[in-house]
Amino acid sequence: MRDRWSTGRLEAFSDGVFAIAITLLVLEISVPERGFEHLWKGIADQWPSYLAYATSFITIGGMWMAHHAIFRRLASADGNVMRLNILLLLLVSFLPFPTKLMAEAIDTTTDAERAAVIFYGLVLLTISVVASVLWRYVAAHRDLLEPGVSDDEVQAITKLAAPNIGFNVAIVLLAFIAPQIAAFGYLLIAVIALFRQHGDTRPAPA
Amino acid sequence: MRDRWSTGRLEAFSDGVFAIAITLLVLEISVPERGFEHLWKGIADQWPSYLAYATSFITIGGMWMAHHAIFRRLASADGNVMRLNILLLLLVSFLPFPTKLMAEAIDTTTDAERAAVIFYGLVLLTISVVASVLWRYVAAHRDLLEPGVSDDEVQAITKLAAPNIGFNVAIVLLAFIAPQIAAFGYLLIAVIALFRQHGDTRPAPA
Amino acid sequence: MRDRWSTGRLEAFSDGVFAIAITLLVLEISVPERGFEHLWKGIADQWPSYLAYATSFITIGGMWMAHHAIFRRLASADGNVMRLNILLLLLVSFLPFPTKLMAEAIDTTTDAERAAVIFYGLVLLTISVVASVLWRYVAAHRDLLEPGVSDDEVQAITKLAAPNIGFNVAIVLLAFIAPQIAAFGYLLIAVIALFRQHGDTRPAPA
Amino acid sequence: MRDRWSTGRLEAFSDGVFAIAITLLVLEISVPERGFEHLWKGIADQWPSYLAYATSFITIGGMWMAHHAIFRRLASADGNVMRLNILLLLLVSFLPFPTKLMAEAIDTTTDAERAAVIFYGLVLLTISVVASVLWRYVAAHRDLLEPGVSDDEVQAITKLAAPNIGFNVAIVLLAFIAPQIAAFGYLLIAVIALFRQHGDTRPAPA
Q: How far apart are CA C188 and CA C166, in angstroms?
C-alpha cells in the first residue's frame, strides 16, 4: 500500500509560501535617492518595477488558483506529490529574484535587458512545466483523487495546468529581438491565465 | 451554472497576504549610522517612519476586518470574486512601497513631501475603491451570499466598505498645501475606519 | 446586543503576524564585508545580533503562547477585542526595529548602547501592558468567554498575562548603569515567561 | 495531571514559520551592479547562491515533512513539547543567516569558504539534534500520542527523525579539506532526507 499524507497541512504550508512569495515582491521596489529631487519623475521612472511586480503577482496568483484547483480534488497525497509540490514551491519562491533582475535591467542596456527578460521567461516556463507534471502525475493515479472527480473534470484541468509552452516559448524568442515588448507579453500571459481558471460546478466538499 | 470556489483556502491565502504585508512594513524603519552618535535624537528623528508605519498598519488592519466582514457572509466565490480579490491583495501588498516613500520624503524638501504624500493617498484611494467594487459585486449577486444574510446587513456593509471617497480626496487635496498635516490625516482616517467596523449580531456560522 | 466576531480568522491572522515577525528577525543579522578576512572572528563578533535575535524570538514565542491561552478561551470577540488585538500585533510587528537597533548599538559607544537597550525595554514593556489590558478586558466581560472557563482559570491567566512590570522596570533601570548586562536580563525574562506558560488541564475544545 | 495544549494553532504557527523561513531565502540572492555589463555571466556567477538556496529550501522542506509526521500523531502537546518546538523554530528561522554567509563566502578565499561551510553544517546538525530530541521526548510520553499509533510506527519515525549525525559530521569534517565539495554534500543530505520521509499507511485522522 502506498504512503499517504493528508492534504490539510500541505495546503496550509503551500498557501503560506504562495502568500509570502507574492508579498515579498514589493521589497524590491524603491526610488533611488537622486530620484527625490523630482519625486513624481522618480516615481514614474520605476515603471519597470511596477510591470515586473504586477506580472509576478498575477502569475503567482494564477498559479495559486491552479494549485487550489488541483489539491481540492485530492483525497490524499503520496510521497511523489509531496516532493513535486516542494519543487514547485522552490521555483515559485525563487521568482522574486528574476523579477528584481528584470526590473533592474529594463531601461539600462539592451544586452542586459535581453538577458534578464529571457531568464525571467525561462523561470516562468519551468514553473509551468513542474505544475503540469504535478497534475499529470495526480491524473495518472486516480486513487489519489476524491471519488467524485469525473474524467471530464480531469481533462479540463489538464488543459488548464498545461504549460502554455507554445505561447511562453514564443515570448522568450520575441525577447531576443524586443525585450521590452516581451516583458509586457509575460503580463498578458499572466492575465489570460488568471481568466482561464475555473471553479467548481459541483458543490464544494465540506 | 456559474463556477464556484469554496472560500476556505481563499480566506487562508488572503489572511496570509494581509499578515505579511502588515509585518513587512517594519523592515523600512532604521536609524542611519550617523544617528548613533546621539541615539535618542536619532530615534526621535525617525518620527515620519513611525507615523507611516502606524498609518499603514492600521489601514491594512481595518481592511482585513472589512475583508473578514465580506467573506464570512459569502457562501462561495465565483471567478470574478477571485480576480477582484487578487487585485485587492495586489494593491494591499503594494502599500509598503508608498509607505516607505512617504517616510523617506517627509522632512526633506516640500516638493518631495507633497509628491510622496499625494502618491500614498492615491494608493489608499485605489484600495478603497477596489474593496468597494468587490463588495458591490457580491451584493449584486445574492446567490453568492449565505442564505441567512438580510437586506439590512447588506446595506450596512455597503456603507462600511464605502471608499470614504469624499474624506480621502479632501486629504489628498490638503496635501497640496500642507503635506505633513495631510499625512496625519491618513492616520485619522485609518483609526476612524477601524472603529467603524462592526461584527455580527447573528451567531457566527460554525 | 454587542457585536460579535468569530475567532477563527482572528487567530489565523494573528498567528500569521506572530510567525512573520518572529522570522523576519534573522534578516537583520549579517557579517560585514571586512569580517570575511577572518570569518570565524567575524561570526563571533556578531554576538549582539544573536543575543537580540534569541531574546526577541523567545519573547514573541512566549507572547504567542499567551495569546493562544487567551483566545482559545474566547467564545467570540467584540470590536474592542479586535482593536486591542490589532494594537498588540502592531507592537509585536514593531519589535524587529528595536531588536536591530540594540544589536547594532551594543559594542559601539556606551551612550548608544544605553539608549538602544532602554528603548528596547520600553517597547517590551508596552507589549506586556497591552497584552495585560487585552486579557483584563476579556476577563471583565465574561460573556465573551467559553461557558466552561472557571474563575480559577481566569485568575491564573490574569497572573500569567501580568506585565512583570516590576521586573521589566528593574531591568530598564539597570540599563542606565550596565546596558550589556541589562540586555542579557531581557533574555532571562523571556525564558522565564516561556516556562511560566501553562496549557489546559481541561480537554481542549474540539 | 500534566498541562495540555491542543495542536491546531501550534501546527498553524509552525507552518507559518517554516513557510516564511523557506521563502525569505531568496532575498539574499542578487546580481551586483557590475554584473549587469555581462548579465548572463553575472547570473551564472551567482551559482553559490543557487546552491545555498536549494540546499536550505530542501532541508527546511524535509524538516517540515518530518514535523508534519510528528505532530499529526500527537493528540496534544505539553509545555515541554511547546518549548522544544519553539527552540526548533528558532533554529530553522536562523538558517537564512548561515545560508547567506555560505553563499557569500564560496569563491572568495579558501579560509572564508571553510569557516562558512563548517558553520552552516553545525547549524544543520543542531537542527537535526533538536528535531530528534523533540521526537524522542514525544515517543517516551506515549500519553501525548494519538491512541492508534503503534510501536512500529514510533520506531519508524525515530529512525527518520534521527539526526544523520554520522553523515552530517562526515561532511563537516570534509569541509576542512574541500569546502566546495562539502557544500554539495549538504544538498545531497537534504535530497536524501526528502526521499526518506514516509506518509501514513493508516487512513489520516479527520
A: 14
> Amino acid identity, residue B79?
G
What are C78-101's pLDDT values in tens digits? 889 999 999 999 999 999 999 999
* Contacts with A11 from chain D: Cβ below 8 Å: none
Contact indicator for D129, D163 with CB cutoff of 8 Å:
yes
Contact A93 D57 (CB under 8 A): yes
**H or E segment to which residue B41 belongs:** helix B39-44
More confident residue, D71 or D3: D71
- Tens of pLDDT, residue by residue over B80-137, are 999 999 999 999 999 999 999 999 999 888 889 999 999 999 999 999 899 989 988 9
DSSP letter at C75 equals S
Chain C residues in contact with D9 (beta carbon < 8 A): 11, 15, 68, 72
Has residue A15 got a pLDDT over 60?
Answer: yes
Which residues of chain B approach chain A closer than 8 Å at the C-beta?
Answer: 1, 3-6, 9, 12-13, 16-17, 19-21, 24, 27, 76-79, 82-83, 86, 89-90, 93-97, 100-101, 104-105, 108-109, 111-112, 115-116, 119
Q: How much is the pTM?
A: 0.90
Distance CA A50, CA C60 (A): 34
d(CA D22, CA D14): 12
Interface confidence, given as ipTM, is 0.88
